[in-house]
Structure formats: C-alpha cells, structure tokens
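Page 42, continued from yesterday. The earlier attempt failed because a stray header line got pasted into the input along with the sequence. Redoing it now with the clean sequence only.
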Amino acid sequence: MGDDPAVNGSHSTSYWFDACEDDRLVGIDFGSAADFDPSLLPAFDNGCDDGFLSEIDRILESINSEQNPAPPHPPPPPQPKIEDSKEEVAAAENSAVVNCTVNGKVESLDSSKRGNSISKRDGSSLNGHWRNGKRMKEERGGRHNWRRFARDRGEDCGDRRRRDGDWGRKRERDGGGDRRESRGYWERDNKSGKVVFRVGSWESEYDREGKRVRQDSLERSRANSEKKAEETEEEEEERKEKPVEEQVRQYQLEVLEQAKRRNTIAFLETGAGKTLIAVLLIKSISEQLLKESRKMLAIFLVPKVPLVYQQAEVIRERTGYRVGHYCGEMGQDFWDARRWQREFESKQVLVMTAQILLNILRHSIIKMEAIHLLILDECHHAVKKHPYSLVMSEFYHTTSKDKRPAVFGMTASPVNLKGVSSQEDCAIKIRNLESKLDSIVCTVKDRKELEKHVPMPLEIVVQYDKAATLWSLHEKIKQMEVAVEEAALSSSRRSKWQFMGARDAGSRDELRLVYGVSERTESDGAANLIQKLRAINYALGELGQWCSYKVALSFLTALQNDERANYQLDVKFQESYLKKVVTLLQCQLSEGAAPTENDTNVADTCNGDSHSIEELEEGELPNSHAVSGGEHVDVIIGAAVADGKVTPKVQALIKILLKYQQTEDFRAIIFVERVVTALVLPKVFTELPSLSFIKCASLIGHNNNQEMRTCQMQDTIAKFRDGRVTLLVATSVAEEGLDIRQCNVVIRFDLAKTVLAYIQSRGRARKPGSDYILMLERGNLSHETFLRNARNSEETLRKEAIERTDLSHLKDTPRLTPVDILPGSMYQVESTGAVVSLNSAVGLIHFYCSQLPSDRYSILRPEFIMERHERPGGSTEYSCKLQLPCNAPFEKLEGPVCSSMRLAQQAVCLAACKKLHEMGAFTDMLLPDKGSGEEGEQVGPNDEGDPLPGTARHREFYPEGVAEVLQGEWILSGRDGCHDSQLFKLHIYAVNCVNVGTSKDPFLTQVSDFAVLFGNELDAEVLSMTMDLFVARTMITKASLVYRGQLEIKETQLLLLKSFHVRLMSIVLDVDVDPSTTPWDPAKGYLFVPLLAESCLHSAKEIDWTLIENIVKADAWMNPLQRARPDVHLGTNERTLGGDRREYGFGKLRHCMAVGQKAHPTYGIRGAVAEFDVVKASGLVPSRDTIGCADDVYLTRGKLFMADSCMDVKDLVGKIVTAAHSGKRFYVDSIRFDMNAENSFPRKEGYLGPLEYSSYADYYRQKYGVELIYKKQPLIRGRGVSYCKNLLSPRFEHSEAREGESAENLDKTYYVFLPPELCLVHPLSGALVRGAQRLPSIMRRVESMLLAVQLKDTIKYPVPAAKILEALTAASCQETFCYERAELLGDAYLKWVVSRFLFLKYPQKHEGQLTRMRQQMVSNMVLYQYALNRGLQSYIQADRFAPSRWAAPGVLPVFDEDSKESESSIFGEESPVVETEVEKDFFDDFIDNIREDGEIEGDSSCYRVLSSKTLADVVEALIGVYYVEGGKNAANHFMKWIGIQVELDSQDIPSPKPYNIPESIMRSIDFDALEGALNIKFEDRGLLVEAITHASRPSSGVSCYQRLEFVGDAVLDHLITRHLFFTYTNLPPGRLTDLRAAAVNNENFARVAVKHKLHVHLRHGSSALEAQIRDFVKDVQEELLKPGFNSFGLGDCKAPKVLGDIVESIAGAIFLDSARDTSVVWKVFQPLLHPMVTPETLPMHPVRELQERCQQQAEGLEYKATRTGNIATVEVFIDGVQIGVAQNPQKKMAQKLAARNALVVLKEKEDASKRDTEKNGEKKNGVQMFTRQTLNDICLRRQWPMPQYRCVNEGGPAHAKRFVYAVRVNTSDRGWTDECVGDPMPSVKKAKDSAAVLLLELLNRCYPDG
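This time it went through. Structure tokens are written below.
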C-alpha cells in the first residue's frame, strides 16, 4: 500500500488538509459506516505529536458546534498513540471505521457522496467506486473509539503546526478555544426499543429527517446552480448598477411622456415592457401629488386572477409602495365599507380584477373622483358588457371632466376579433376603443429599437392528418346525453329537486363568483352531467378513445371522492352514468408500432421502412426519424393511432416534443382550447417512457367546473419558472400577461380564435431563439384562412396606429358608437350615491338570494317566468315574473313589458332591487343587509392581531374598588401634633369566631380576640353574613362581625391604636413599615384592636390597652431583626415567615433607600447564610462575652440566656422568637430540658451518606460560624411561623387524594431545636399573631360585601346583597361560591328576551339578519361595554385573595420582582436542602406555598387585571341573580339599568300578517296526528304549517320555518336551563353547563322529533334530505334497542340538522299561538323531552373525558386527521403513541369514536396493571415515580456528586409541549458517564425520569455488582 502513488505521496497527503481547511466541508454528507474502506486512506507517518485523526476530530467538532452547540464536557481519557508499524497499518485496514456525525447520523467518510468537494491537487477526484472495485464491509467497534492512522513522513511538522494554529482560531470563532464536544450520547432506539449509542450531539427525529432532505435538495440544486451561476451573476450585477429609470428604453420613455400629458393606450407587443411604463407613470403621479401633500390612490385593473398576483408583485418590487391585491376568492364581496376604507387609507396602489372595482363603485364604497390614476391591463377587453367597459361607461364618463382620474391602457392589439377586413374597419374599431377609454393609442414608430429588445420567435407550421371518426362510440355517448335530459325533464317539478348541482352542498366559493360575474344556473346534477358527457365526447373526437377514457375516469374518481357521495342523490345519479361511460371506453395505451397484416413483430417494424404498413391511418409516417435509444417514433404510439385510441393530432404533438429531447433548459407552453384537453394531455405524456424528459402540469382558469384555485395556479407558475415543471398545458388563461421569461417553445395545439390570442400566445415565447409552433389540420381551409388573416391584421393594425385614417365622413353614424349612457335604466340611492343598473340588477338579485339563510338541501335562487306578448304588426314583446325564495321579504314581482327577454329579466330585477331597498333588505350601499348595525362593522379583528374586547385574552388594568362606607378622614389624625380636646366617635365590631370540628393542633385554638374600628356604621346585611375560614384540614372557623356599640376616644389613644395596628400588620403581612412614617389613605379607614378575654358592658373598656401600650413601647422594635423582613439585613434570601424561598429584590432596594445601608454581600445568592460574625458586627445582636458562671446556675434559677436578655422559662412558652443567625421566626412550643447543644445531630430522613455534623454545636459552628457559649443550656423546641394565608379558599380538598399519604403524615408537625442564646424574644405573642393572621381574610370578605351592598343601592331593586356578591365573584377567586351558575341562567334568559324583542319588532327580517342582530345585542363585546359604562369593574372580585398583595390601612404591600417561581424550585431536587431546623409546617402549607406563588395577576394593590370576558360574564350573572330573586320584572329592571332595551309597548308590535294558505296544502297535512303528538290544539294552524315547511319546498305562499326556529330555539334554551337550574340547586357550575349542553342541542332535539314521529310531517322538496332522514330514523331505532341507552346527543349517528330545527320551530309556533305565553310551551315540551337528562344519566363527551384524563396524568394528547375519498380517519396519540383510531364520513364523529376507542384501551391497560400489582402482593406506584430518587440514592451511596440534568430540547404547541432532558454523572473511578437522552415527554419531571431510566441501565451495565 505504501508504494502506491495514487494513495501515497505529498499530493494525496495534502488533500486532506485542503478539505479540512475548507469551510465547505461542513456540508458533507458522510456515507454509511458499513461501506467504508480504510485501505483507501493515505498511510501517514506518526512522527509529529498529533495524530491524523485529531484533525478529523476537529472537523467534526467544528461541524457539530455549528450545527448544535452543546455545553462543555470534560475531555475523554487520552488515547494511546499508535506507532508506525506494518502490523498497525494492517490492523487499521481490518478494523478502522472513521465515524463522522453530520445530521445526527453515524456515517462514514464516503467520497462518492461528496462528488468533487474533496479533490486532489492535480484536479482529479477520488473515484466513488473504490480502487479495487469493491468496498469492504466492516463490523463497527463497540466503543466507537477513534483509531489513529500512521501519518506519511513527507509532511513536515512545522507546516502542520501552522495549520493547527489556523484550526485553533477557527475553533475559537466557532465557540470557545479548547472546548471539546462530547463523543456522543445514549438514547432509546424507536424501532428496536434498545438503548443505543450515537456519536455527536442530540437532534430530534424531525430535525434529522429535515436535514437529510435539505442535504439531498442542496446537492441537487448545487449542480443546476453552478451552471447558471455565472450568467445570473452578470445579469444581477448589471441590474444592481442601474436603477429602474436607467434601464428604461427610448421607446418606453416616448410612451411615458405622452401618458403624462394625456390619457393613453400603449399598443406594444408582448414583452415590450408595458408594465414598466405603468410603474413609471405611477411614480411620476405619486411624486407630483406628494408635492401638494396629497396621497395617491392608483387602481391597476387586470382581466384575469393570476395577473393580480403577478402585477402586484412587480409594482411592489419596482416602487416600494404599499400595494394591495384583490380578487374574488379573497371574499371581498362580503367586505363592508369600513374594511375597504382601511385599504384605501393604507395602500397607494390597488391591483384588482375589474369586476371588483365595478362592484365597489356600484355600491358607492369608492367614488371615481377618489381615484387619481386608472390603469387597464389588456384594455382591448373594454367592449360590450365587459367590466372594463361598464366601469368606463357607468362611472368614468358620468363623472365631471375635471374630477376624472388619468387613464392608461395597455394592449398588444387594440382589436380583439377574428381579424379586420380593411384599413377603415380597423380605424373604426380603434377609434371606438379610444372614445370608450377617453384615450389616444400610442405605438412605436421606429420598429428597429423594439426588435432589438423584443426577440420574435421563429414561426413554424406543423400539419397533421384528420382523425378517423369513431361513430359508434360517439353515438352511444350522445344517446346517454339524451337519456339524462329526458330523466331531468320527464320528472315533475318536485323531482327536479333530485338533481342538485354543485351548489347543493352550500359551496359558497361558487356563489362568490355568481355576483356580477356570471349567472350559472346549471346547478342541477343533470346539467352538470351533460357538461361532463360533452367533454368526454369532445375528447373522443379531438384526442382519441384513450384520452376520453382517462377523462371519464377522472370525472368518476372525483365524484367518488366527494364528501357528499354518501347522501347526495345527484352525486349518485351522475356516478351511475359515468360508470357506464368508463366501461364503454375502457382501453390500454401501449407503446409500439401498428402491426402489419403479415407480421406482428414490433422489432421488424422498427428495423426498417420496407414493410408496407397498410393498417396505419392516413398521416402516420413510416419513415420517422430515429430518436435516442434506437426507437422509431411510430413505435411509440403508432398502434394506438391505428386503433383510433389516439388521434394523429396527438401523435404529431408527441413528435414535436421529441425534437426537443436534447434541448438544454427546455421550457414550453402548449395552448389548448378546452379545459378537458389541458387536463388529459399531461396524463398521455406521463404514460410514454420516451417523453420521460418532460415534467408536465396543467394550467386552467377559474370559470369552469374543474376550476383551479389561485394558490394552485401560483404554485404551478412558480414551478414552471424554477424548472420543477418544464411543460405547461394551458387554456387561454396563460395567453394574457403571464410573464415567464424562461419559456422557449410555444405550441398552439388548438389554433387561436382571434388575432389577439394569436399575438398574445406568440408573445409567451420570451427567450431569444424561441419557436412558435402552429398545428394546422391538413386540408382544413378555415385554419389556413385564419392564419393568413391574423398575419395581415397585425400589419394593418400597426399601420393604422401610426398613420390614422381620416374618418370624418363617418361622424355621427352608428359605426362610430358614442359612449352609451342610458337614462332611467338605473336606481340610485340619494344618501350614498350607490347605484344599480340594468346591467348589474340580475347579478345583485342572485347575490342577494345566495346570502339568504339556507342549508345544503335548499338551493336559494331567483326564478324567472317569461311571458310573450304578440303585438299587432307582428312584433313580439316580453314580460318577466320574478319569484324569490320563501324567506325573502316578498315572493313575487311582475316586471314591465320589454322588447327582448334579456331586457325583461333585467327590468324586473331592477324593480326588485328598488323594492328590497325600500323594505330594508338592502342597505343604503345596496348590499344585502346582514342585520349588523354600525357596531357590527367594528367586530373584525384589528390588523395588529390584538385580542378583541369581550374575549378572555383582552385584559386591562382597573383600579380596585373600595366601598364608600369605609371612607374616613379620622384615620389621618395625628399628622399635625396631638390635640386631646378632640374626640373621635367610632363604631366597634368584635370579630366572633366559632370553631366547627376539632384539631389535634393546640395552636389553632390558642388565638387572641380582635375587634375592628370603623368610622361609619355598617349595613345589617354585612353583620348577618358568616364566613367560613379554612384553618385546618379537620376544622373550619365560622367568623362574623358583632356590633359592640359606639366608642369615643381621644387623639392620643387613637395614635396608640394606629401604632399598634401598624406594628401588628407589618409582622403579619411581612412588610417593614414604621408607624411614624407610614402613609394613611382616607379611602380605607379601619383599625384592628385586641380585646380583653372577658367582655365588658362599656365598649371602650373591652380593648386591651395594657397590651397595646406594652407592644407599642417595646424597645425590641429598634432591632431590625425584630421587624419585618430581617432577610434584608442578614443578606440571606430566606423570607422570615415559613422559610418561603423567594427572592425579594424590592425589599432590598427599599431598605437600602430608607436606611442608606449597603446590601449584604451574600444577598440574593440562593441558600446563602450570613456568617455570624457579620451579624455581630452589624450590631444586631448584643455582645456575648462569657460570664464565668457555670451553665447550670441559670438552670436552677429557671432562667435561660437568650441572645439579648435572660428570660424565665415559664414566660417563654407561647412566645415568638427570632433566630439571630437566620432571621426566621418560630413559635416556642416547649423547652427540652433533656436536650442540649452537645447532643448528637440527627441525620436527615433517608440520608445514607457519611455523618456531616457530630452535634448541634458542631452544626452551628460549621454552617454559621457560631461558637456556642452555653452548650449545656436546654434547647427550645419551636415551630416555624407560617406566613399569612388566604383562609377563604377550601385549601385541603385537593391534597387529600394523594396516594400513599397517611393522615398522620399529612398532619405531621415539623419541629426545630434552637439554642436559646441565638434567639431574640419577639414583642408579639404567638396567640396574637395567629389571631391577627385571620384578619386579612375576614376583611377581604367584609370589603367585598360592602361593595355588593353599594351596588345593590345603586341599582335600586331589593335583592339580597349576598346574592349580588355571588354574581360579582369569579371562579378564579377559588372561594366557596362564584357567578358561573347564575351566569348560565342569565345567559339563557338574556338570549330569550332579546330574541323575542327582535322577532316581534322586525317581522320583515329573515333569520340570518335576526341572528346577527341578536349577536350584536348579547355579544360579550357589547355586554363588556355596558359593564364599563356602569363602572362594574370596581365591584368585581376576580383574583384569588393573596394576603401578600392585600393593602391593610397604613400597611401597603411591596411587590417583589421574582415572586413567581416554578413548583420544582420550592420542593424539587434542584432547591438546596433546608437547614436541619425543619420548619413547623403542615403538608398543606407546602401546597399553599405553591399556590400562592402562581398568582401574580396585578402588580399593585390598587390595580388589578380583568379580562373583558369577565365583565361580560358578570352582567349575565347579575341578570341571572335578579331573575332568581325577583322573577322577570327584576331581571328586566336590571337590564334596563345596565342599558339593554328589550321592552316593547303593545302598540309597537306590528300585527302578524294573516296566513293565506291554499286549501290544497291544508288538506295535505294530517293536523290531527300532528296536534295529537304535541297534545295541543292550534288556534292559527297557519303557524303550524310554517313551522314544518323547509326552504327546499317550492313556496306557494307559505314561508319556511326559519324565523319560528329562531324564536323557538331561544325559548327552549331558556325554559330547559331554568328547569335544570332550579331542579339541581347544589350541582357545581361545570356539571350544570354539561347538563344544559346535553339537553339543549340539535342532536337531542332530532331524536325527540323521531321519537314522537314529527319528522313524517316535515314539508320539504329534497330527496337527498329524505334519504338522510330515513337512514337516521333507522339508526335511532337501533340505538333505542340497546338496554338503558340514552345518548342525549352523544349517539354514534349524526342527525340531519333539519329535524332539530323543526322541534325548535314548533316551540316558536306554540309560543306565538298561545299569545306569547312561555308556560304553555313548557307544558307541551316537558313531556316531549322526557326523559330529561339528569346528573346520573349525563354521559361525558369522550373527547372531553380523554382530554381531562390526560391533563390529570400530565400526558400529551394529540389528534391527527386525514381524509381518503369521503372517509375521514382520526388517530389519537398519547405521549406520541397511537392509542385509538376511527373512521367516519364526518370528521367530528370520527374524532368522537376515536376518543372513545382510546378510553377503552386505556381502561384495559389500567385494569391489567392493577391485576399485576395485586398478583405481586405489593402496592407499586410505578417505576417512573422513583427513577430520579433511585439515581440520587446510588450517588449518595457511592459518594458521587448529584446527577447533572440539562434540557436538550423544548418545543411543540402550548397544548402539546414536549421536553427532552439529558443526564450524566461524574463517577469517582471512571469520570463522567456519557450523556443519556430521554424520550420527548409532556412534563419536565417525566422527561428527567425518562433520561434517568437510561442512565440507570447504563450504570447497571458498568457496575453489575450494584
């Protein structure tokens, strides 16, 4: 090997280093490890220090650090050097595998993958097929160690060191000098489930896949891009150098100059740069207006949708202006004036289709005067009734001349006809276009310059033979057409409804196109099918049998994949015929020549031309030229042509394409006439292997059944531009304006119809040297004539544009038509100027009908009945009757007599528009009134994406309300010195507490009594209220206020009380304030005072004045450790009370400002503890010089040495002490005479490590630096003083259910043992603090109640204040009551009264308008506005009470910057272990810590955040409360107060229209059976007829049920909600909501209809509906057979909505028939709805049940839905594993069934695991619970540091977040383990557990001995 020059030698040595130094190596995709052949690696000498492999190592390191920088790891143990010897080389040959990690895969260096990226110096590259022609397969080494290779001696060391220096610099740049990446990591392989090692840093599966795909596409594109790079760079450079203006050609400037002076039509060929002229004109006008400080509005009109996007993009790029683009599918038909106004204000140029401009002009959304520049692209369309023409004639020419916009037209041919006959004819047509556009045509006189810039393609004519006609097939298909027509016509009018067309399923997309664009009425299945049969027949004639078979097949497949195929009859009808056609045409397309009579051997046919091929059809050329691969063209589809399977025209096209097989960068467009051809030709090409070099796609327009969405068109065009598609088969949509510069071949498969199409399609060939191929039928004269004509016309046009023929002799003759403006043919609205003309009336009526409420079974459209009138003299005139759908305000209208049928139709529609506007069905903009007033238009989401008012995400700050009764100036006394002469009259209220239940904890009953002093007397309702305080798990304290009379006190006494109040509350709330400096707010005036144990008659004497004086005057307050927040002074970050480990930045800041002291050096370091000498030096603790007496002297006297005094033992119990070394406070429980500081220090529970401290004294010495002096003194047993809690929330419910926790464990008390000499005695006693800790909760409730009383007085209606408080309290307060139940009732009542009001007030409005108007009146946004107007925000209680944020008088809260921390940092492994003085605290205090932490809603006491939905909910809750307490009068009183006007005077209610129902209809209905089922007799049966009539029924004077359904829906909702509310008074709100949802839903009502046979009376006209009802009835009967089954709307079959609707409409009919009495409705419906859902029978929706279960278990839940044909499949994944799957035509039903299946599987798993547990006889909590703990135990046992976890990845949507964690351990004997990466998990804990399991497996392997 050493002698091989190809491998050895200096060249081969150095190529490695070239590769290493080249940054491009980072992109290398190394091959698979198995395919690596080490013999090809150069053998290097190891003379220099560093091995060759360390170079590779560094390459990888740089690759990895660039891809995924990981935290630094210690380097792996050094590897032994391998000496240079033959044995070593041999070993390397046999076992070396260089594994490199790129893209997260272990792969080997494989130069075949890299191509030329690693090349030798001499330019040759390593061959991908190795030298010996085969690759050695190698086993991979177990530990993936790098093998070192010997290095060639030829390289000198200095050279290499220099390179090393470069590498060093690169490494620094890539992220840290000497850092080493980890060698790899362990993870669980998804497929095998085994733990596997992977090299490099971790990447998610998705990233690996993504990178591989990107790598592949990079390599593919690199090959193409290198080829193009040079050309493109040159072009780019040129383009960059020249700004737009400099690139302008001379002729463009000439046209521009004329356009600036006057209105101009630019007549230039395609590709001559007309758009650039338009862009420059826009800029010029904009600059001109800017000088006058005005904003430009230019409108750029295009005729076709794809051009909207293209031109908008061009203008944006060229000008940088704000450009908007608009086309029909963006839904602008439904935009209101405001939305458009925003567009006009924010944009400078608007690119749109002409129809949109015409619509907004007609509706007066924009005026012609507002436009500065109007550009018409392809302006030759401005003829007849084209939107261009109508915009000009209806609006431009009717605007006064000085207000008209400038006009600029662009065209490649101003005449759009078959051709022009003479110069004069040409002149007339141009002149007419000029007058229509008020412009002058301008073209280029000197054609030389034009030809220089616009390359003309070479025109080639290809002739083909006429196709043989397949008579029999044509005839059979034609007979089918006839049969279909007969089937449609022979049916009666009723069965005409069987053939529902494309609009049947409510495809609104089509309707968008209806308005003003076309009036497609072939929506019947029959008409649709006939179109399809004609398309198939066309394909048969033009393209041959195979193509027409493919067309028929694709129609059939599309139908079968249609969602509606199951239940739409018309779809089935079409399907049956198409199946017949497919069977008839079925054939194969095989390659091969046509066989001869004698010889069928294809090979012979190929070999020579000598065979006489008689079977070949005329035109099939036997002597075809050979193509690559040795085939002959007739071999390709000669046989198919002979059989008539393909026509000679298609064969000719294939021959043309084959000529371009070798063309580089081939890009072609084939123009065809019909969509069907465009769709089928690509299929032909894909079936022919010889055309495999082509990548083909279709491009078709919008106005056809096979329409292509704009986004698809854009995508196809983009693919064509960048070469992913090389051939487009296009209809005329691609003729105009589409700018595709790369196109070099244009083929006219079907000849153009007009001169213009001929010119424009030729212009698509943009590339120099292009071909324009015209396919002509041999011997077809019309084809030849057209071609000749087109060429001549082009010349004539050019000549005319320059020379201008004189036409003065034709002036005022009909040939020169003036612009026609017909007076009287339009209706204009005075106020807005909106106009409807004869031209637009028909479209507007169609649009109006499409906007009426409808379902998939009814096609709402106008019907026209024509009548002929023969006039004397032989002339015929026509009149037209219009019939509107039954839910329009009027149904029939007769129009005037007109000269033509078209005019008669237009005239009646114009009259209808006028009438609809007068009746209020049209707005003043002449748009259908949707029922939204002015407010409705504001509802659209604002552009910035901010949340809307009325939603839960819309949150704002509001000041917190304080009841006026609490105001008192008296609280400010003492500011100006003391005046004892002044007496204050105050009211004293004792706080009365009664304990219910018992507790083992004596401290709960040892509490002091308090009273509260108020300036004003409180309302009696406040005193009658008792509140539950949840003080312990087994005990509740019932607290109330008791009035003790009036009290007169002097100012000095008041000052004393204020000082006491401040001292007490500052400790309770942990806020360090001083009585002398604290601010007082007169808005909230009350004080807390202590009471004597025995009650006195005189209220002043009840106050414990002695206690007050002792506390206020105590010297201890001078010591900052005795005040609140000693942590600030000590520099620890432990909070005083209860050891709550939060960081208190603001406390630190405030203290420094007040005292001017620097913060302690250890402040803010987690777990930091101040050294005791620092505490001493601060002077906070008196000097402790040793007194020579023995410790026991003090014991005998019963005294203890405290930190600042001597204290009697008996006085100490019950006090609070402050630990001088830590600043924490403790209740003194007892003195432990049996313990002292020399006792051995206890181990922590479960701790297995070595003993840390020998005694208590040792502990204090080591941990705090305190040398105890009185070591023999007994220790104090204390319990931590917990911080003040919210006692209003039931805190203990959630913690009871924890598994494996015994009751003793839960109520376990934690004690601390303290040396007395480190304790300071606190001035406040334990009982006093414990009593005072209840006061904030009590006062919070009192303050809320006072606000409720105040609101009640404002509304002035007698309702209990406690109920109002309930309606003001949100569930987020977590108290024992909230507004949700009342809100449910209020919501239903509000909906009902508003519906009733609207129904009665607006008899003309249809259900859609009423629904929108109701939405406006009851929407959250409107209710929120009402709430704000009445100031409800100050009364609402929306946050859980947090004492730390509550403001007591004189003690304002301090807000801490870091008061929000995660759960884990309070109790998880990450938090430092608390000192051995374990605080006394219940388990529930722990729970509390967590919960308090999560609440950081507002940021100060006087402000809080409320969502606007909360305000809206409170309005509904108050309606509910008033309704419950005072009936509808009270509710209506409140609604009137808040601003909802719903009361109607009886004279305001319009009298109902009398029913005029034909006798035939009345006879057809079985009233006895229907009224019998309902058990009620109707006064007015007309109401009942209306209630059962569906909109699909032809009208004949009966309205459909929609209006009745609107009012019935609301009345049933209200009655059922009321019934449930009063029946289940103790049901929590969530369950009540579920009950209501189960009772009030369409599915449930539909089952009621079937049960009582109401569906048989339904009057409708849809057989599709009939079939669906039939299926549903069958399913319901099967459901009812199941024992005890009642689905309450959760059944497995989906009901037709119509059935639920008639139940609601019947309720509405009963309501109206019974003189609007709801009790009659309930009397009828209560038995109908029986059995009503109850809490016991309520099924939970499977989707919701699964979601709640997964939330409890912290599992990630995900649904994936797919659709195949008309079946939806939904899969359920839990933590990434598929658990359930289901299929159904309806996606929602599939989701429900999948969730149900998943629940069954999960239940089975749970049962199985329970059985396993019982079998093992032990209770397992699952391995997962203890994996981390097990790992921690191993580390402790082996005395290793704790494991290190790090988050590798965190991602996914908020509802399905995933965490990936890695873990490693530093073992004492083997150093760091490799990282183990766990699986993606939904929570951090589970992710860490997952990683820990892997590490445990790894450790078990390494340490099998345990």
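Notes: The first strand starts at residue 31 and ends at 32.
Reminder to self: strip header lines before submitting.
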